[in-house]
Amino acid sequence: MKKGIFKRGTSLFLSVIMCLSALVGFGTTAYAAGETAEAVMISFPRDGDANYDGEWGHGSLELMNGWSNGETRYTTVYAVDSYSGNICYCIEPGTALNNGNILTGKDETFWDNYPDDYNKTIGADFVKLFIGRILQYGYTGTISTDWRSQNEGADKIAQSRATQLLIWETVVGERDENFNHVAPSGCNAVLEMVSTAHPLYGKIMNYYNSIVASVQTHSKLPSFVAQSTAKAQTVELARNGTEYTATLTDSNNVLGNYNFSGSGLSFSVNGNTLTVSAKTAPANAVTITAEKRESLRKGLIVWSDGVYVPGVGIQDLVSYTQSVNDPVKGYLNVKISYGSAKLQKVSEDGKVEGISFTVTGEGYSTTVKTNANGEWQLDNLSPGIYTVTELVEDKYEPQEIRRVTVVGGQVSTVTFNNILKRGDLSVTKTSEDGLNEGVTFHLYGISLSGLVVDEYAVTDSSGKAYFSDV
Question: Interior CA angle at 58 toward 119 and 176, to 5°?
Fold first, then answer.
């Protein structure tokens, strides 16, 4: 069993180190899942540190979701099998780890059985992703017994400490699905694990804030999309004359980092503006997927005793492997609200029922007849321009084809007015005595349209009588 290297002789009596202000480091990339490794640890401050008497530790703390952390005087880092191995990090705050404990390497399937009981804020997938992203931007170098607050090791202690704080916040539930901080209620906050009097407090917090900003930017979505399809908003496409479009503005200023896809849709990006277009009206709502380009995070190896319960068993640790694909996706729905077309029929002869009309549009054609009120209404029409043609009886004057523009959520009305066909009749009077002027003629009967005709006309000097518009 390897022994930890501690700052003074008295530290050699420490047989159990809690994962308190601990930072962990292992030679991880050399290990595979299923292999075992022996934990070693280094505590700070060490002999010769200019701030040896500073406040490197913290008091006893009760954290969210049943996690805790005991009092400590030190900032401790961990590795496996080597005091100069790659750093790893504590994922079970408050659970004991003996120097020399044997841990087994687990690949990312470890998170498939990650219990929900100890983090009510986010699920296992988010915990895994966030730890990988924290390690993408946090400290992933080796540890060393040579680190001191007055040499180049100060930055490494500070950066690794900031990394550990954020992993703890993620584990205990102080980070939500957007990696925003969740303030604990009725318990201590993880940030209380670093005293404001810590010799490296300013450096630690600078790194902490920088990593937070990087992780939030890493997973920041365009402002108009949601992390899940269930939470996705629905945007209306409007016809612009040739196609259906919607224009969206990204207030998060990350639009250029994403590709967009959706069945039957095309996309164009101009600065922070996305234009969604469809040549034809989609029959149903279409889900758009926004996927970040070239998104990577660190792969994870968990060193575990097989027990993941606060304060029970041996401390589990996490370290990193090579970067892996880290899909960051958002979702948006687009649809076209259907509209209606209505016809109002009037006719000179009062006949308005049972008149046939043909209605055609883009990918649409139907024939419909008027009701007793001279009306019909077609619902659930895609927005656009429709052509309405009356199948006119011969007794009426020909009707012009009419166009009606259907708008989503509205009823668009078109009117047809039938006028009966009419003509002119002239009567020529001749007589042997030449008396042709002033003769009255009576035209009466039923027209072909069914109207009663009862009109009179008188001949002029040429012997002609005219009946007009009959």
Answer: 25
